[in-house]
Amino acid sequence: MNRVVLSILFAACLTLYSCKPKVTPPTPPTPVNLYTVKSQQVFYYDNFPATVQGLSQVDLRPEVQGYITGIFFTEGTHVQKGQKLYEIDERLYQAAYDQAVANLKVAQGTQVQAQQDADRYTYLNEQNAVAKQLYDHAIIALENAKNSVGAAQQAVNTAKANFTYSIITAPFDGTIGFSQVKMGNMVSVGSTILNTISTDNPMAVDFLINEAQLSHYQELSQSKTALSDSLFTIVLPDHSVYPYPGKISVIDRGVDPQTGTIRIRLEFPNPKYALRAGMSCVVRVHNQEKAPQMVIPGKAVVEQMGEYFVFVVKDTVMFTAADSARKEKDPMDSVPGPKYRAFQHKVQLGQTIDDHVIIKAGIADGDQIVVDGVQALHEGSRVAVSKKQPGQGGTTGEGKGSK
Fold first, then answer.
1. Total tally of structural domains belonging to the chain
2. Among the listed residues 101, 107, 64, 119, the one whose alpha carbon sits nearest the alpha carbon of residue 86
3. Is the full-model pTM beyond 0.70?
4. Domain check: are 325 and 348 in the same one?
């Protein structure tokens, strides 16, 4: 009987023990590395893709028809204003000019004869020694002769212009391209393109900015104070930095409503003709901000639904406001010592500089933010802080475009 009672008691105790709720061990803190925010002087450039253009560029077209009888330049070289470039067969235009000059001389001779007759009949008319009709005819003949001389002179001018147009010269100093015609080719007025010439010193560099940046560039354009020599520089296709700085030449008339951008034109000296029309390059606009700025590693920033956040770590023993806001207590809160937790702070991003980013708002100097282990965190996550923190050195670099 005693054995039966003992067995029942043992079974009851075992059942009571198995029904006791199990205590879930607390989740261990997430190991993280921290970065202490500290404002500092920042040196960087805004980078914009750009294209080199000539300040002036024209297509050379013939103004008279004929065959090309002379080409007097080397393709792809610098030419001077007024330099002879092409010659169109001038024999017909020379003959037309000579004929017009001869016709002018005939008309001038006729005018001399008409003038003499008019003078004679004028004298006789004053003496009442000639019929009135003859006098009137003499005066009319003189006027006709003068008009004939005028018409002949205009014909000479036209023939001379056509003769002059048979020689094509450079309209300005610049670089000339490949010839589109060869010796002996027939060219037509207006439709045939002989060549293209563009100015080569100085050169224009065009790039696009966001409309939100327009007011800043207008201020730079209108500034009467001396700007930094390094404000506008360009990086060439071979990744070398062009040695001469530029300045704002033109801000376009209006904003493109499709893209929300506006074109800016810079002007650069080109004494060695290193810049060529159509060349691609990168415009670097030097940062003019003199006040210290908060710069943090880019990997500390988390994007959520188009907004940007960082995790700021605080000791919840001291940070009682955040601690009391939590609805559920963590068993680890009873453990003595610092209790570090990560809290999301929405931030406003500025310029990206290499692997760092400028923060305009959302955190403050002295805040400790998570830079490693961000992916495993959520609001209020417990963290284990590494004693070793990333370096806090100054930041310089190339901007990746404006935010």
1. 4
2. 64
3. no
4. yes
